[in-house]
Design goal:
Helices cover about 65% and strands about 5% of the residues. It is mainly α and about 100 residues long. Strands 1-2 form a two-stranded antiparallel ribbon. Helix 1 runs parallel beside helix 3 and helix 2 packs across helix 3. The termini are far apart.
Length: about 100
Amino acid sequence: MRYLILNSIIVLIVFLITWFYNKDLFNKKWFLATLVLLVMTAIFDSLIVGNEIVAYNDDSYLNLFIGMAPIEDFAYTIAGMMIIPTVWKYLGSKE
């Protein structure tokens, strides 16, 4: 449960930053790319967990999984898909 709260706060902060600096990000291409990366997260996180490269403390998670990946891990993908293009746009050319 601890990670769900932490991830929710982080995703909310990243969303607000993105909404302020890069409102036009949320379009059809963004949603499609995010969906592709969420599927890849499910596949590769499941491989990592299944091969015991990473282990999770059951007390910190909701114990809801997609494949073998905890649901909380998908927040990192969503946050990355918002903040990376926003930083890229903000730090990019000001021409």
